[in-house]
Amino acid sequence: MNPASPGSQTPTAEIVAAGNEVLLGDVLDSNSHLLCRQVTALGGAVTRVVLVRDDLEAIATEVRGVLRRAPALVFTVGGLGPTADDMTLEGLALGLGVELELHPDAERLVRAAYAGFAAAGLVPFAEMNEARLKMAHLPQGAAPVPNPVGGAPGVVLERGPTTFVSLPGVPEELAAIVEHSLSQVFDRIFGVAHYEERTLVVDLQDESAIADILGAVERAHPEVYVKSRAKVMGPAVTLRITLSARGDDPARVDALLQPPADELLEKIAAAGFGVRAEEDPV
Questions:
Q1: Is CB count within 10 Å lower at the N or C end of the chain?
Q2: How far apart are CA 193 and CA 75, in angstroms?
């Protein structure tokens, strides 16, 4: 099984990022990149990433599609804030066929956040208003998770085999929630899943020169994903080759990777090109 196409034992994840500013090209979607790396490092596989406008029906349509595909984990990104165009939770509720309701724990988190912001002089007042209270209205069945640096809490909701995790679009807030508030969610979904990657660097300007070698090694080791990453051609350009695999046992993953890495080193060198191994952990 090629890890590029996750097997039945690999937890899969999808990402639904909402934001007109991303689709307009005003903001780069670095959040999806961070989440892809996080899922990969945990031994999972992201199978789908989609960008949608701040539109209720567009968000709800994606949620309904998620329910049909039933991945283990879905991140929604953006649209958790206090303004009218922050409508991701409403779209999530619409797609799931539930209502929004004021969640007391979410309200407590929002109140505490703004009290802290006001004490630090970051906002003009500490009191709750309708806009701030909006961030404490969650889809029925959802629970908030702390946002260590922002006002809007993250949201976790389980529906059948799928866990929805809604995160704010501000990159610093999203990263803080992922790092500090989702360990239990990740442990439950990914368990002891392990991902490992090896990198080879080849002194070569043209990846087509070793395409046959790469293909033969990949066919001989179907559980290892072999990917060459070329850049612009030129006399000083090097080619990077990554080999990756995943599984429940780190020792077995390591054992899967070593033979194809050794074969590539030997065969590329025999073809007359400089090649070396490089540490490149996820």
A1: C
A2: 19
